[in-house]
Design goal:
This protein is α+β, with helices and mostly antiparallel strands. It is about 35% helix and about 25% strand. The chain has an eight-stranded antiparallel beta barrel with strand order 4-5-6-7-8-9-10-11. β5 (about 130-140) and β6 (about 140-145) form a beta hairpin. The chain is globular, with a radius of gyration of 20 Å. It starts with a strand and ends with a strand.
């Protein structure tokens, strides 16, 4: 039996190859097939840029078909991560557990009460080149898009957090996707205090202030140092 060392989002795991391959057609069948170049840490562990806490729950289920429920790791997050790994047996186990316990909407309500929400994006009411989208990703990080395709592009960037292995087979696709991200995707940071927020979408600019209201945000019309010359505008929330 082969022993596999993994580093998932900075957390280290050690398990058997057979354990990871218990679910057919999963992410790990491709990862461990030897057909693709897999990033490794300095000490040789296979690196996966995903949530390590959620993976610990997933791995326990693969080992013993035991679903660990913890207040520190929401089942909605574990389910989302299991979907990424194409581990449908884990997804089905979570769905069955939630149905038995009657907790189908509890975590969804918690997500809706977050400031800012991370299960969708905020978009202003302008069109064309003035259209703007903010997607808050947690841990003080955000994605900023603008232009007439911003709304469609944010759906794409949310669906493709990491380049699929099937895309990596084509150097042209890899190069084109990298250029697409460079052209359309801007990354930034945010801080929250009560119902107030500041965002920074360009390293050379000062933070831009904003206000939370139920279901929407208010930001200045321009994200520049002299934002005070224009009125604030509304960014409505849209769920994915």
């Amino acid at each position: 039996m082969s022993v596999i060392r993994l580093n998932v989002g900075g957390k280290e795991f050690c398990t058997l190859k057979e354990t990871l391959l218990r679910s057919e057609d999963s992410y790990f069948n491709g990862l461990l097939s030897g057909r693709f170049e897999v990033p490794k840490t300095d000490d040789g562990a296979l690196f996966i840029d995903r949530n390590g806490d959620a993976f610990s729950v997933i791995l326990e289920y693969l080992r013993a078909e035991h679903l660990v429920v913890s207040a520190n790791v929401p089942l909605s997050l574990v389910r989302s991560e299991a979907m990424f790994y194409s581990l449908m047996n884990v997804v089905e186990a979570i769905d069955a557990h939630k149905e038995r316990k009657g907790i189908a909407d509890e975590e969804e309500d918690q997500e809706k009460n977050k400031i800012p929400r991370e299960d969708g994006f905020y978009i202003n009411n302008r069109s064309g080149k003035d259209s703007r989208v903010l997607h808050f990703r947690g841990d003080g990080k955000l994605t900023f898009l603008e232009g007439d395709a911003a709304r469609n592009n944010v759906y794409m960037f949310n669906a493709v957090r990491h380049m699929p292995e099937i895309w990596k087979k084509s150097p042209t696709t890899v190069d084109s996707y990298a250029k697409f991200c460079q052209i359309h995707l801007q990354r930034g940071f945010y801080e929250v205090e009560g119902t107030c927020i500041t965002i920074k979408v360009n390293q050379t600019e000062q933070p831009t202030p904003g206000i939370f209201q139920k279901g929407f945000l208010l930001f200045p019309k321009r994200f520049t140092d002299n934002w005070e010359v224009d009125a604030f505008e509304r960014y409505n929330f849209v769920a994915f």
